[in-house]
Amino acid sequence: MLEIWAHRADLAEAAINDRHASKVWGIPGTNLGVVAWPSASRDELFLHWHYWWQAHYLDCQIDAFNRGATNVRAKRLTRTVRGIRLRNLGPLTRNRYYDDRAWMALALGRMRGLPRVHPPSTLDALEMDIIAGVDPNLGVLPWKTGASFFNVPANGPMAIMCARSGRLDLAVSVTDWISRNLINDDGIVMDGVRMSMHGPEVVTDIHPYNQGTFMGAELEIALALRGQSATPVENLEYAEADSADAYIPHIMLIRDLVQSTATHLASTHYVLNWPTTGGDGGLFNGILARYLADIALRLPADSHLNRATKRLAARMVLNSAESEWRHRLEVDGLPVFSNHWDTDAQLPRNAVPATSERGTILGSTVPERDLSVQLSGWMLMEAAARVSEKYSATRV
């Protein structure tokens, strides 16, 4: 199974390279993802380039590099970082949206320790800039500079960033705030809290990537706390382990979140299928799949409940990937992925391009035209390639 999924991930990578990868304004040694295919002149000139989409373009490249650390991939990563810095027309902190910056920090942070590639020296400044935006009263980030909307799209990625970079206290306080305020009765993460003159108003919208980032943050926190623990949980009965260490509540929450995801965000065949548009929404299910793959592979297997949770997460990743692959189109031998993983992809010709509304990129009339949708498909193939190293579809 590993060879099959690695090959499919290679084809997804090749499709992006063939249709979307381009030099920035023709400048040698740069690369970005053109936001649409087929592209218009304004797309090719990067009049619109969508900062946070490029962060996920980097993330997908890192996934591919981790499968096979080739010189070609190393050069493309370096050129993409250079392209992002060039097109941003200033330091990476030059962006009003904290969620955008947090995604960029996560992607660049994953470059630490990779052979032949290095994150920019400004990564530390980017992380500090994000943390400086935390509201001193609420202890969480607003969506953007000066906003009164405090949402999971900003705080989920920041919590992951903090847990990975050793700022564990902040990561825990942010996820505790989300857990107290933004988990609905079905166990699904809601969008955020808007502070108004009448008091806090919960925005109950469901976007599947919020489920993903919250699970991802809880996993990073649990692993960090477990690393600090002196208790050999593998040698304890599960009932004893429940009270043994601070990380156990985070593990228990992850189990509940994975089960809620399977019940409410996936089909009866365990295919992730929460309806999304193209545009920004094109990335949402792919991000959820990324963090489900992390749980399948990195959640400690020291109890039968954890092992069942890992298998369930793996099943959702592999079944979603199989469905998405089955519903793809092929153009010149390379996949065009569907925006909806359980329905056939549409050929993105003569589509009205994506537009922006109040800081959100709306989808093209044929969502498959959008880079975000194709990155999501690539992200899913990479997740399946990782998971298939340990699990097969028949075993989960």
Your description of this structure?
The protein is mainly alpha-helical and 396 residues long. The protein has one domain (2-388): Glycosyltransferase (Alpha/alpha barrel). Helix content is 52%, strand content 8%. The protein has 14 helices and 9 strands. The chain has helices at 2-19, 41-44, 51-67, 71-87, 98-110, 123-132, 152-164, 168-181, 208-228, 238-241, 248-264, 284-298, 304-326, 371-388, and strands at residues 21-22, 32-33, 149-151, 190-196, 199-206, 329-331, 334-336, 356-357, 360-361. The chain has a 3-stranded antiparallel sheet. It has a two-stranded antiparallel ribbon with strand order 1-2. Helix 1 runs antiparallel to helix 14 (371-388) and helix 5 packs parallel to helix 7 (152-164). The longest helix is centred in the C-terminal third of the chain and has 23 residues, at 304-326. It is globular. Residues 232-243 have low confidence and may be disordered.
Write the layout of secondary structure elements.
Blueprint: H1 2-19, E1 21-22, E2 32-33, H2 41-44, H3 51-67, H4 71-87, H5 98-110, H6 123-132, E3 149-151, H7 152-164, H8 168-181, E4 190-196, E5 199-206, H9 208-228, H10 238-241, H11 248-264, H12 284-298, H13 304-326, E6 329-331, E7 334-336, E8 356-357, E9 360-361, H14 371-388
Antiparallel strand pairs: 1-2, 3-4, 4-5, 6-7, 8-9
Pfam families: Glyco_hydro_76
GO biological process, one term: carbohydrate metabolic process
Protein name: Glycoside hydrolase family 76
